[in-house]
Amino acid sequence: MKNKYNNSRRQFLAAGSLASLGLLFAKPSAFAFASAKPDSKFGGVQIGCITYSYRSMPGSIDEIISYLVQSGISATELMGDAVEEYAGKPANPVQMRWVPGQPRPTLTDEQKAAMKKYQEDVRAWRESVSMDKFKEVRAKLDKAGISVYAYKPNAFSPNNSDGEVEYALRTAKILGAKSVTVELPTDPKQTQRLGDLGAKHGIYFGYHAHLQVKDNSFDEALAQSPYNSMNLDAGHYIAVGAPHTTASLLALIEAKKDRITSLHIKDRTSKENGAKNLVWGTGDTPLKEILTAMKKNKYKFPATIELEYDIPAGSDAVAEVKKCVEFAKAILV
């Protein structure tokens, strides 16, 4: 996933202040809307949203829940940062922003030492933290009318201990998630390890791929464990270009329907057309065909909005996610 929004912390805080002022002077009807429970299940198809979509906005867990409600989203793939911060995860002492497509910042020896200590502190915290705060997050989500079908903490790399992985799986279960999501590892030993731990806790690992995705990318992991599954991204699949087509994408979804735990949807053009992220309905991703197939075939997995196109001037992520919800609803209802 590419972060195209490089707002500074000062801009984030300013946006939060403006949002607060907007609520302060809002009409009573605005508060009624904010407190209403959302429903984004249409025609039997659950439309969800990965909370990464709100990365351009301030990101506490309460703010994220508010964004989901305002967007009309009733189910989510929840990123882990805000959840762990609420639960008291140690703060990272090395704050260096990396822009995808640019060289990664070089750490000084002092920063490397600080990062090593930080990772050790996080591991110790994860392996010993109480689940009480995570139960509080679940209560907040339940009150807002939002279910969590997938959880994505940054805890599933080969460098994370089994204790960290199992902590994340326990957390996912408390949040109500059926699966956790992670980028597809390149080492089959890692997918075997994760699949085994997933089976131990009854939580699926949904593997996500970007432009390296092929029809057989997930096959080895799927064969290793019934708890290894796919977090397929329809937009990235189409952006690869030939030989990927609408027909091959729909065929892949049908063939793997019982091994897909969530499907990311976005509108991208093919490689031949620049592999761009565009406003829904203007790219090459067959959104209508995908959603229609999900309804017709009664697929059980959710369709997850992942907002990656440039936000138009005068709009924000909440408004754009809401547009995506309405786009899907128009097809499904």
Plain-language structure description:
Strand 9 and strand 10 (277-278) form a beta hairpin. This protein is an alpha/beta fold and 333 residues long. The chain is globular, with a radius of gyration of 20 Å. The protein has 13 helices and eleven strands. An eight-stranded parallel barrel has the order 2-3-4-5-6-7-8-11, surrounded by five helices. Helix 3 runs parallel beside helix 6 (132-144) and helix 3 packs across helix 13 (317-332). 45% of the residues lie in helices and 14% in strands. The model is unreliable at 1-34 (pLDDT under 50). The longest helix has 18 residues, at 109-126.
Distance between the termini: 30 Å
Biggest sheet architecture:
8 strands, parallel, barrel
Kindly report the average pLDDT value: 90
Radius of gyration: 20 Å
Q: How much strand?
A: 5-15%
Tally of separate helices: 13
Strand order of the largest sheet: 2-3-4-5-6-7-8-11
- Total beta strands: 11
Uncertain segments of ≥5 residues (pLDDT<50)?
1-34
Helical coverage, percent range: 40-55%
Order of helices and strands: HHEEHEHHHEHEHEHEHHEEEHEH
Class by alpha and beta content: alpha/beta
What best-fitting shape do the alpha-carbon axes yield? globular
